[in-house]
Amino acid sequence: MHTTASDGKNSIEEMAEAARALGHEYIAITDHSKAVTVANGLDEKRMAAHIKKIHAANEKGLGIRVLAGAEVDILKVGRWTIRMSCWRNWMWWCARSIRILNLEREAMTERMLAAIENPYAQIIGHPTGRVLLRREAIDYDMEKVLAACGKHGVAMECNSYPDRLDLKDVYLRMCKERGVKVVISTDAHNAGNLSLIRYGVRMARRGWLEKRDVINTLGVGEFLGALRGGRERRRDRKGKKKGLRRGHRVHREEKGDGEIHRTKYVRWKSVPRPDEAYGAQNPRFAEYAWNEGVLWERRGG
Questions:
Q1: What is the chain's pLDDT, residue by residue, as a tens digit (301 residues)?
Q2: Is the dihedral of CA 24, 188, 121, 67 positive or negative?
Q3: Per residue in 201-237, is it b (16+ CB within 10 Å) or e — as a string?
Q4: Domains along the sequence of the chain with CATH
Q5: CA 150 to each of CA 4, 24, 117, 280, 293: distance values in angstroms, whole numbers, following the listed order
Q6: With 0-12 CB in 10 A as exposed, 13-18 as middle and 19+ as buried, what is 297?
Q7: How far apart are CA 28 and CA 60, in angstroms?
Q8: How far is CA 288 from CA 83, 157, 177, in A?
Q9: Which of 233, 232, 178 is nearest to 209 (CA)?
Q10: 120, 109, 122, 6: which is closest to 53 by C-alpha?
Q11: DSSP tag of 227
């Protein structure tokens, strides 16, 4: 969903309050990146300021979790419109396909595959870019794209906006058959748009999707864990090898009260530093330790 930071009509707090009133546990703010100048897209500097506002909103006790995301355009060769140095500061990324519409089928397929292979890609937004009665869907090899999504753990969007309903039912059925997870979004640009989620749900049902196929039916912790990067550590930009997989146990010696304690940790998920992502004073993370780019859950002594 979008806020006044780009082309939305309501603030972060107003969107959060409207979603809370509808019974939602969390929302994801995904304002546009700088390539969408017509939508007041955010450059790197404005994005950094925007994420601080999202964190500040979480500290106000809104009664709902606000996730920091971004809707980033895919360029012609599959690169993104935002520098890599900004990527780690966000909770999740939605790469949208509609920046370039006039490529041949093979070139468009390669563009999509290159975007999916980016280790920070978590959701493909506006997957076919269609606008009902106004713009045809992008032509690419859906079989290859869904195979890549399944391989890399990238989810596909089911956009609830009545003008879009993208993906359509046939492609949603393909997602289910190939084990590709789906996110049903509102693409809300104002608080009133949040109720449009019902249309996305109906389209998902037409594609035979069940609750287990749609990851934003999960609680916030499970949702973040289901996203790419929630299961294993992302490869960093220097090409260092991935870290240990989720559930790996380690012991670490800690000094306290004049004694050395051996404490067992279980790898929980790869996220930005807790003090950056959730607020340094958040008591929820008292039982976690941050080390080597990973959040470790403390499990006994």
A1: 999 998 899 999 999 999 999 999 999 999 888 766 666 778 888 888 888 899 999 999 899 999 988 888 777 655 555 555 455 555 555 666 555 567 899 989 988 898 888 877 899 999 999 999 999 999 999 999 999 999 999 999 999 999 999 999 999 999 999 999 999 999 999 999 999 999 999 999 999 999 999 999 999 999 988 988 764 433 333 333 333 333 444 333 333 444 433 334 444 444 444 444 433 344 444 444 444 444 444 444 3
A2: negative
A3: bebbeebebeeebbbbbbebeebbbbbbbbebbbeee
A4: 12-226 (3.20.20.140), 249-298 (no CATH)
A5: 34, 28, 11, 35, 25
A6: middle
A7: 16
A8: 30, 31, 37
A9: 178
A10: 6
A11: S
Which phi and psi (to 5°) does residue 173 adopt? -65, -40
Is the Cβ–Cβ distance between 73 and 35 less than 8 Å?
yes
User: 185: helix, coil or strand?
Assistant: strand
